[in-house]
Every structure is written in C-alpha cells, then in structure tokens.
Amino acid sequence: RLSKHINTRSTSETFIQNQFDPVRRIENRKLIGTGVRVKLFKKNFVGIAAFYERESLTPDIINQDVIMNKDVRLSSYLQLDVDISKNIQFLSTTYFQPNIKLFSDYRLSTESQLNVQITTHFQITNTVEVMYDSSPASGVNELTYRLQNGIQFTF
User: Fold this and answer.
1) Distances in Å between the alpha carbon of 35 and those of 2, 4, 76, 108, 133?
2) What's the Cα-to-Cα distance from 82 to each of 15, 19, 44, 92, 113, rounded to whole Å?
3) Distance (Å, whole) CA 54 – CA 147
4) Has this prediction a pTM greater than 0.90?
5) Of 6, 109, 115, 136, which shows the fewest CB atoms inside 10 Å?
C-alpha cells in the first residue's frame, strides 16, 4: 500500500494485494486499486476506492474447472481507532465492496480488535473477523467468521 498526503485530512492510496483463502475456496486473488482516504478525527478514517481483481476459485468435486472471476469493484471503508481507557484500545475496519457491473454482488467485511495492555511490555488481543459475500463460491457459506485471541510481548 502506497500513500501520499494530499493535505492534512486527505491521502491518496494505491494498493496491490495477493491472497488465498482455502475456507472460501479462493485459490488466488490478485487486485490493484486506487482511492482516497479522509481523516474524520484523531486516528479515524473513511475511504473510497476502486480496484480490479482477478480471482481463481479452487475446483469442486463435481466441476473440476478452475473458475476465474475478473471484476472491477468499488471499495468503501471505515477505520476506527478508539482508546477506551489508558490500557484498552478498540480497532475496527469495515469494508463494503460491490461489483460495479452488478451491485447485488457485494462483499461486506469487518475486522475488530480489542487490545488490553497488562504491563508496558505485555498485551492481550482479541480479534473477530466477519465476512459476508453475496455470491460466494459453490459450497461456501455466505457468512464466514474467524475468532483469534493472542498474547503480545513487546521488547
């Protein structure tokens, strides 16, 4: 991700991504896009972008052909970073990504994290990621989620 400040509140963003996700049967997903991020207050932002993606899905038992999707999507997001107290931080990023040609084909995802600082070097993290895909791969639920708890030690 490359960012360039336009002024004190606005930033242009250009991004490239490569990923896979066996749970959602995504063998490979590549995307490139650009957009603008605007600072709402403190460390909180809203953004709008457009990106081109190439997504290959893993074959299923019945259909052995690899399915390749090539789409242009809009991407709007809200990024929150809130200090609940001196030792507790809440982070959340929510994306809405409709297909430009077919708005009923969209993805809505959010990743939220609660960090609790125990000492200056020790922190507990709790993360939840929820993803809704209106047109998932065959055999994949529209709604998927992931929960993760962690311990972080900073040197």
Assistant:
1) 11, 11, 9, 18, 22
2) 25, 29, 8, 9, 11
3) 27
4) no
5) 6
